Batch of 4 targets.
Target 1
Amino acid sequence: MDTAESLMPREKMLQSGIGSLSDVELLALFLRTGTPGKDVMTLAKEMLCHFGSLYGLLTADFIQFRSLSGVGIAKYAQLKGIAELARRYYNVRMMEENSLLSPEMTREFLQSQLMEEEREIFLVIFLDAQHRVITHSRLFAGTLSHVEVHPREIIREAIKLNASAVILAHNHPSGCAEPSKADKLITERVVKCCQFMDIRVLDHLVIGRGEYVSFAERGWI
């Protein structure tokens, strides 16, 4: 009888479930085929080694990607499609499940929406009194290192949606998620403005590349 380690990714998935696959095996499952003189498992290992992680691979641009010998636009399109499919999945899941947000689900959703942005985006999730998602909105867009946020616009949108609570989020395209002094100041302003309208700010998450910071987890909200 074959052990799990000796099985090809598809057979291993059928026997032990998708969660049993390593990063290399999961990547090989999506790639399906190798390149001339290189089987798909070898190709998957080389790609992960070259980019350092699945994150590094899925966020690479085409110039970085084609530095791999024998790999072209078809494989690049496959992997970009995977990343976009994941982003859309979290988007739909957020709206269709209509469930209470967990910290993990919130973080995963925000990372899927903001992690690859090349400029700062300020996104707000609007919730009802039971903390179920009403909608989310990219209210402000900025530059590589700054986004101007207007608390009154957040309040106006929350009132229009009859929201009882909000979760704030923005990304740092530099990759480092550590909040700046400006991030802390604008969070304080938004919290104070929301308090006047009896709207709770549950958290503010800063999304970096493969990392995040939660104001709530740090006790800042």
Note: Residues 82 and 158 are 33 Å apart (CA to CA).
Target 2
Amino acid sequence: MPFSAETCVAMHIGDRLEQQDRVGLFAHPKRPGIMLAVLADGMGGHSGGAVAAEQVIMRARQNLETYAPLHETPRDLLASVIDEAHTVIKLTRFTSEKDPHSTAVAFLLQQGKAYWAHCGDSRLYWFRGTDTASRSRDHSLVAELMRKGRLDEAGALRHPQRNVLLSCLGSEREPHIEYGVAESPDAGDSFLLCSDGLWSYFTDFEMASTIQAHPPRIAAERLIQLARERAGGAGDNISLAIVKLVPPAADASR
């Protein structure tokens, strides 16, 4: 079934002194129907994390502008965004006293299909109505302990090393990138990119049902408001992007 996309990006500084998350949504400048959403959660001391996250967004915008789908695959584009941002972030360590790092999650909508890639613990959710069709795997210590059966979800949220990442951009090791694809997304599906400042406070069903029930902007406002309430004055930076697939306008009017 044909569909169109309703979108929204949103951020909140939380209870931090600085916003080190970045999020962007870009359309291809020459090819209709191609859209790229990207989100990065920066780390690395005062301003260092913001610099790292900004590099992810800049690389995404620039690479999309030169993306030629007749000669490149969606995976080529997504990999180039993360790999090239990783290289630039590493280079900034030699020109500053900071130690910048960042997560990255990128989502591409092209010719009726959806593709995504991620590194770190910023997440990509694919919701089919209120069901979770897919969710990216965190590259973190607690996620690895959970996969080995040594920690449950409640324990992961309280673990003193819950923020330790096993892979990210800017580290000495090359980033571990995982990919996903939705071959036949349909109206009623939605995709959520978000940092841990958001997903830490919700079940999958809560986020899916909020996005299902509201237009993206209202859904984003409600999710941020509730995350702030649940954080109790100790909330991290929040960033998210929502891509909600809906019937084309003509069908909706009928």
Note: The mean pLDDT is 92.
Target 3
Amino acid sequence: MMSGKVVVVTGAGGGIGRDIALSMARYGARVLVNDIGASLDGAGHDTAPGQRVVDEIREAGGEAVANAESVAEKGAGERIIAQALDVFGRIDCIVNNAGILRDRFFHKMSDEEWDAVLKVHLYGTFGLSRAAAPHFKEQGSGSFVHMTSTSGLIGNYAQANYNAAKMGIAGLSKSIALDLEKFNVRSNCIAPFAWSRMVSSIPTDTPEQAARVEKIKQMTPAKIAPLAVYLASDAAKEVNGQIFTVRNNEIFLMSQPRPIRSIHRSEGWSPESIAMHGMPALQGSFIPVERSGDVFSWDPM
């Protein structure tokens, strides 16, 4: 399904990114494996993880090259695309997977913790996508696969930075889909459930939390790769601007904000009439203040 195509996968030295890179190669793609080899909070720099994935691909008969640029740095997107073009001569798909965590309750979060996560997830996705866009436009084809999260789409504790970035990526993807659709370029999101470093920091202080973590451990990163390969391929040419969730063997199409219910008053509204009549009429349709785990509460299938 990916024969002749060139794919960039960020954060591909381990976890979800690694499995996506390996699967892309297995289906015929040439792969640029981007990873800086940092710790979960973004500290450090080690080129070994990305090179190991490249070696795995080559040993299996595929073509791959390593890249150790940090997507958080200005100009990194252009340099990553330039390497892909220099080595492989073209670019067909960007998988924006790189990410870090700096979990903290909102009222205790520092500017640095906020900035670090936004720069990797949201700025990194924007920078690499923008760098690829002119090439996609010129060749009249291309696909973006962005990693969002149900933590952003639904909610989670102590992750204001991560949640804001992941919700931002969903909005960015929709804008890309709208702006580049006329050039036959597609942009979609995956919100993955999978056990990886990105979720290994979930607390297990209570029996309920420990049980939830055990459920997540059943969901391996390899479960995400088939949808990523499909969305990158020409088989998905009619799929654009969508958000999917993968949870073990389940694939969900996620809703996007639309009007739920309206109220109308011919003479207009006052604060008092809103309080007395308007809000009580809407309240039955309120979205609960829930976490992702509250919504996806059943055992993975």
Note: Residues 6-256 form a domain with the Rossmann fold fold (CATH 3.40.50.720).
Target 4
Amino acid sequence: MDFTYSEEQRMLADSLRRFVESEYSFEKRRRNAREHGSFDRGIWSSLAEMGVLGLAVPADHGGFGHGPASQVVVQRELGRALVQEPVIPSGVIATAILAHHAPAALQAEWLPAIASGDKIFTLAYLEPDSRYRPEVARTTARKAGADGYVLNGRKSVVWHGAAADTYIVSAMLDGALALFLVSRDAKGLAVTGYPTMDRLSGAGLQLADVPATLVTTNGLEALELGLDHGVAAQCAAAAGAIERLIEITAEYLGTRKQFGKPLASFQALQHRVADMLLQKELALSMAYVAAQGLDATDAAERRRKVSAAKVVTAKAARFAGQQAVQLHGGMGMTDELEVGDYFKALTMVDVLLGDTDLHLERYGEAMAA
């Protein structure tokens, strides 16, 4: 896989950089989180127009059909600005599941809607006692009529669940895991949204005889594929966030003075910034590894590379966030600077889409396989 930017990728990256610098300032991001639940319909439409939401959607369904390498380019730029809209849940995870596992009729119905931004999808697979494990589900499905199904159960920590129009829900059907589509306005569905520590939003779902459409009975394979695509995108976004956080920190050290000298002139602080740079390069390299893993034909190889990338990137993200807060001194502990937003977002890298313990276990199982 060639990770040198093509001319098209360079133009896309430059366009996104200009867009987020003008439309995603610190003040606008805070206001978006405070007043709109971290979702701005205008920003979402702009992302769709730029091709971000349809990047991985096949061309015959209104998208661009780009592979994982282009996703690294896009997510790196979005991560630099901490873009809050549900690009990864809808444009990456849901797209991967539907494009690879949904029947042709469902693909024709829903993939164009994802690419255009008309519909927002997210994945509801976690439950209160599942501990990140996709195969664990107490939610059940049963047939209702000739082609319909109804779901009963509870889903928790649904990423961007409050903004979604449609949920991909995992449930047990005849003793095996299956995936279903559930509309936000479905009868019997109760959605409870809440803010999260990184200024995003989550939701809990309560399902009581909720009508649903079957996506696939091969639920575990489809779910793991979608999550792996999400993790790869998350790693690239984290690398972009670390990159921007280093720039913010370097600027602060260059302007803040102590003993009549800029903080940037002190060698000990220079070394700490250098350590942050090393972690950024490590995170970006692992984002490439994860993207490469998505092209693997062997599922064990894909899981090995993606889980390795998740573990290393989460560690790098945590280190960079902590160092940035410390290098800002007392100001780093306040809510006045955007360093705190980056710290919170980078801290959440470890717990979103499976924590370090889970991915270390997956990595070990993939190595054994």
Note: The domain at 221-368 is CATH 1.20.140.10 (Butyryl-CoA Dehydrogenase, subunit A; domain 3).
